[in-house]
Specification:
single chain; binds 3-methyl-2-oxobutanoic acid; about 280 residues; alpha/beta
């Protein structure tokens, strides 16, 4: 049966009725098709793209053009999932006008349904302006990888009362600015639960405990295609890398030994035709 397109209202309803929301990253047509067919609610074209697909050592170098290119492939594949494009570093911090213009590119050029941006209370005016322009915004607080250096590295955020309270205020400010959803990354589960209960909008956790309204994982972590490092919160459901490696070795061996292509992979020509050449 064809699934209906997931809407913002449907996500809100899920929170209100206690049904969990699913989000998965995808960066290209084949992975987005699989995610969509798996019945996920939302696809995040995350700027994690930079690390898991483009080979950068962080998300900082990712550009608007790179994001748009990959978002276009994902939206071509996603029939039902709500697609969220992740605004890259410095695409929304320089000025409100620039932030609206760049958010607009995700919707107009790449046909995304919404955008996500990182940051706490200081980003509330930017969220408000983009929402006012008619573009739905998902917030992202806690560990915000684009500014990990400012947070002294990739570490759990909000572990003491003071920083936890700051994140609660940030969550409220982002909600008040009009965000439709909030991603919370790498915070203690008690804090994830507290913010989830305080907010009216849905929360999506990644390393934020099971009380969040939904969960997100990075596709390449889930299928075992990113081997550089594995964060504690990332569960690997299948390890594809050894299987792919084995298939590649097998191909190389068969070509070198003349075993591939076999007759079943070969096109025939009548010998009399071949003889005419
Ligand atoms: O870029 C990304 O994939 C993200 C998720 C980890 C939430 O921001």
């Amino acid at each position: 049966m064809e699934r209906k397109k997931v809407t913002l209202a449907a996500l809100q309803q899920k929170k209100e009725s206690g049904r969990k929301i699913t989000m998965m990253t995808a960066y290209d047509y084949p992975s987005a098709r699989l995610v969509d067919e798996a019945g996920m609610d939302t696809i995040l074209v995350g700027d994690s793209l930079g690390m898991v697909v483009l080979g950068y050592d962080s998300t900082v170098p990712v550009t608007m053009d790179e994001m748009i290119h990959h978002c276009k492939a994902v939206t071509r594949a996603a029939k039902s999932c709500l697609v969220i494009g992740d605004m890259p570093f410095l695409s929304y911090q320089v000025s409100i006008d620039k932030a609206i213009e760049n958010a607009g590119r995700f919707v107009k050029e790449a046909r995304c349904d919404a955008v996500k941006l990182e940051g706490g209370s200081e980003m509330a005016p930017v969220v408000r302006a983009i929402v006012r322009a008619g573009i739905p915004v998902c917030g992202h607080i806690g560990l915000t990888p684009q500014t990990a250096t400012m947070l002294s590295g990739f570490r759990v955020q909000g572990k003491d009362a003071e920083s936890a309270n700051k994140l609660v205020v940030a969550a409220r400010d982002i909600e008040e600015a009009g965000a439709f959803m909030l991603v919370m990354e790498c915070i203690p589960d008690l804090l994830g639960g507290r913010i989830t209960r305080e907010l009216k909008i849905p929360t999506i956790g990644i390393g934020a405990g099971k009380e969040c309204d939904g969960q997100v994982l990075v596709y390449h972590d889930l299928v075992g295609l990113f081997e550089r490092f594995t964060p504690k919160f990332a569960k690997q459901y299948v390890n594809l890398s050894p299987l792919v490696r084995e298939a590649l070795l097998q191909f190389r061996k068969e070509v070198e030994e003349g075993a591939f292509p076999g007759s079943e992979h070969t096109f025939a020509m009548k010998p009399e035709e071949a003889g005419k050449g």
